[in-house]
Specification:
Elements: E1 4-9, E2 13-19, E3 25-32, H1 35-45, E4 51-55, H2 60-69, E5 73-77, H3 79-86, H4 94-107, H5 118-147, H6 161-175, H7 179-209, H8 211-216, H9 224-233
Parallel strand pairs: 1-4, 4-5
Antiparallel strand pairs: 1-2, 2-3
Helix pairs in contact: 5-7, 5-9, 6-7, 7-9
């Protein structure tokens, strides 16, 4: 008989349920959401457990690659299907959810989700961080544009990010009446912009060294950001699920 091992994953804990082919529950436990704790718990029960399943969520990459590295086959379930299957349950607590997922695994009524590589997620994190910091820079610039109208200072419609600090700082210090209000904003904006430049250099280095990105950029209208975003979202080697699976 085969073991069907299911996890219901929350941010800090994992509820484990193991059933046989006949649907009888053989083991239940709740452990911290740490790979080492989960593996130790499974091995205390039986060394014959070879695969585990859980729905896609916030800790998918951490658990999927951590458990895969310890020798387990990881089955990542499509979250909407699991939610629909568990909707009829009366008490939706973690323990009961784990039981329901175990029965879904036993019956085979699920679709597997492709878990992208950690390298792909690191690239996406870099792109997201770069975009977020640049957005904060623009927000501060727009706030300063509004405040300096009190001084009668009007900036050009187009002012490059690199020249912004020098132009504004000189004008504000020359007036002197709003130095205490605006200079701190300029200091924060300058720090954010310098951080953005560091991330932008990392991003450009990745694009220069990636042959896939270089080929994509030969397409008219495709720039570095689009190329690297597409590369990070595309299928990649090192996957731990089957071809044709949805991405997560």
């Amino acid at each position: 008989m085969n073991y069907h091992t299911a996890f219901d994953v929350s941010l800090r804990s994992v509820s484990i349920c193991i059933v046989y082919d006949d649907g009888v529950i053989q083991f239940e436990a709740q452990v911290p959401a740490e790979v080492e704790e989960i593996v130790a718990c499974l091995r205390r029960f039986s060394l014959e457990v070879g695969s585990v399943g859980f729905e896609a969520g916030a800790l998918t990459q951490y658990l999927a690659y951590g458990l895969h590295a310890t020798g387990y086959e990881v089955i990542c379930l499509e979250a909407r299907q699991v939610s629909a299957a568990l909707a009829a349950m009366r008490n939706k607590i973690d323990k009961n959810n784990a039981r329901g997922i175990a029965q879904i695994l036993r019956a085979g009524w699920y679709s597997r989700v492709h878990v992208k590589s950690l390298e792909s997620h690191l690239v996406r994190a870099l792109l997201s961080s770069r975009k977020t910091i640049l957005k904060k820079c623009v927000d501060i610039e727009n706030e300063i544009r509004g405040l300096i109208r009190l001084l009668g200072i009007r900036l050009p419609g187009t002012l490059k990010h690199g020249a912004y600090d020098a132009v504004l700082r000189q004008a504000i210090e020359a007036d002197g009446s709003m130095v205490n209000s605006l200079i701190p904003l300029l200091d924060v904006r300058l720090m954010l912009y310098q951080t953005y430049l560091k991330l932008d250099n990392q991003f450009k280095a990745l694009v220069r060294e990636d042959p896939v990105c270089q080929r994509l950029m030969t397409v008219p209208g495709v720039g570095a950001i689009t190329a690297l975003t597409f590369k990070a979202a595309a299928d990649d080697p090192g996957r731990i699920s089957k071809a044709g699976d949805p991405d997560v």
